[in-house]
Design goal:
The chain is built from 6 helices and 7 strands, in the order E-H-E-E-E-H-E-E-H-E-H-H-H. The protein is of the alpha/beta class.
């Protein structure tokens, strides 16, 4: 069993904001799989996809970004999923818009949702897909990440979430090392 979690903030005011890159990628993945996130438990909304008899839990925490670890830890405990079968998708200010970076461990890089997950799980050895949203140093960071993509940015970002969702589908039945080699 695997757990794939996209990070973001619940609520209409956050739809299509840069900080919801993880949610947007999960939305694209669900479109491709024809999967509805129709379950509500463990401080998350999620769906279960089945592939060759294996369950893959696909989730969006509903705790707000900074407390994402609460939902992740709760889902992992409920479904007895080991940390090596977890993949977290989140935005990254330090990557250019449109860039994906897959890693198996590391710090949060200042991403507070990822930081909360690392803290609550007690490890930084967590598979992750970092989604580049760029950074505009002339705008306050909070305002920037909670801002919406421009039309031009959204075109680039749409390609990114498409590629990221392909990486997640590939991860369903491949080692994360193989996924990194193919999609980094």
């Amino acid at each position: 069993m695997k757990l794939i979690v996209g990070l973001g903030n619940p609520g209409n005011e956050y739809v299509k904001t840069r900080h919801n890159a993880g949610f947007l990628l999960i939305d694209r993945l669900c479109e491709k799989l024809n999967l509805e996130l129709d379950k509500k438990k463990c401080k998350a909304i999620y769906g279960i996809y089945r592939l060759n008899g294996e369950k893959i839990v696909i989730a969006k925490p509903q705790t707000y970004m900074n407390l994402s670890g609460e939902a992740v830890k709760s889902l992992m405990k409920f479904y007895d999923i080991p940390v090596e079968d977890l993949i977290v998708v989140h935005d990254d200010l330090d990557l250019p818009l449109g860039k994906l970076r897959l890693r198996q461990q590391g710090s949060s890089g200042g991403q507070k949702g990822m930081g909360n997950i690392i803290d609550l799980l007690g490890t930084s050895k967590i598979n992750r897909i970092r989604v580049g949203i760029s950074n505009d140093k002339t705008v306050d960071t909070k305002d920037y990440v909670l801002g919406r993509f421009s039309k031009e940015e959204m075109k680039v970002f749409a390609e990114t979430v498409d590629k990221g969702s392909d990486a997640l589908i590939y991860a369903f039945d491949h080692d994360f090392d193989e996924v990194m080699s193919k999609f980094n």
